[in-house]
Amino acid sequence: xxxxxxxxxxxxxxxxxxxxxxxxxxxxxxxxxxxxxxxxxxxxxxxxxxxxxxxxxxxxxxxxxxxxxxxxxxxxxxxxxxxxxxxxxxxxxxxxxxxxxxxxxxxxxxxxxxxxxxxxxxxxxxxxxxxxxxxxxxxxxxxxxxxxxxxxxxxxxxxxxxxxxxxxxxxxxxxxxxxxxxxxxxxxxxxxxxxxxxxxxxxxxxxxxxxxxxxxxxxxxxxxxxxxxxxxxxxxxxxxxxxxxxxxxxxxxxxxxxxxxxxxxxxxxxxxxxxxxxxxxxxxxxxxxxxxxxxxxxxxxxxxxxxxxxxxxxxxxxxxxxxxxxxxxxxxxxxxxxxxxxxxxxxxxxxxxxxxxxxxxxxxxxxxxxxxxxxxxxxxxxx
Length: 383
Description:
Layout: E1 4-8, H1 12-23, E2 27-31, E3 43-46, H2 48-56, H3 60-65, E4 68-70, E5 72-76, E6 82-87, H4 88-95, E7 99-103, H5 104-113, E8 120-121, E9 126-133, E10 136-141, E11 144-148, E12 150-153, H6 160-165, E13 173-183, E14 194-199, E15 202-208, E16 214-220, H7 231-239, H8 246-251, E17 259-265, E18 274-275, E19 278-280, H9 283-286, H10 295-312, H11 316-344, H12 351-363, H13 366-377
Parallel strand pairs: 1-2, 1-12, 2-8, 5-14, 12-19
Antiparallel strand pairs: 3-7, 4-7, 5-6, 9-10, 10-11, 13-16, 13-17, 14-15, 15-16, 18-19
Helix pairs in contact: 1-5, 1-10, 2-10, 10-11
């Protein structure tokens, strides 16, 4: 079997895949098209399955040390009434960890530090990916060509590699939601580690971070491409009457810190995550809505599965077939569950539907809600 890989994309999934392959002795090059590593994004929430994947990659403890456990919180109405309460200690007892929150920039740094110096190339876009014979994939990049035994496409929801491999696939579609998010610029006095608040067609959430700051996000049901001249002022207008600490979180945020992205997903599942010696991973394979907080965790699971497959199979093609068989059913099931969670949560806007959902949530025992979460958090790597 070969031992040279090119990873297209230097996000969480791509870096994790590179770490996994490097740990089994492969020579790995990561191509990141951005000219500067800006570490865009506010925060990453990691459930127990994602942390187990990081343990397999050798960076789990470092990530835990830089994260804050989410122990107390739940879901509320805009006026502050609790619909459900969640206890992170119950998750910790059941699956070994509560949900952990870590700034995205810190996560990127920890992953990059686990790779050999020089293996990550910035300002390097993969212009072409072509399997030139039965044993070699050629990646065109900046007028040069990199030959590899394996190419991992971790180039995000708008993956160009995926579109080349599956030209008839419809590709990503707009989920109907757009999200604004930021890290506060200073410490915030919070009574709960994490909260979600659901209004008609709207969600506001926050999680507390290790340094006392918080990450918040606002999900709005708006047409694709909607943008605001002054996003922070617009959010203050929309959420000024919602319960504390929502106005305080917005007041503790610098206008320049607010990020705004439409949420796109692969609503049509891919028929395979592998073609020959090319593998798709993370959002390139199964971009999902954020309603279960499993996007990064599923990419990390992918990375572990991809790195484990070569040891169990005689060829790269067989290893990728194994990877596909293991990862596609689970990740696509999680994507469907995330979509359904959005339909029953943030996307509901009719007053009667909202009232029925709120009543059902209020009457559901917390142990039942916890059991639903455990379905996704209980993954463990194959031995």
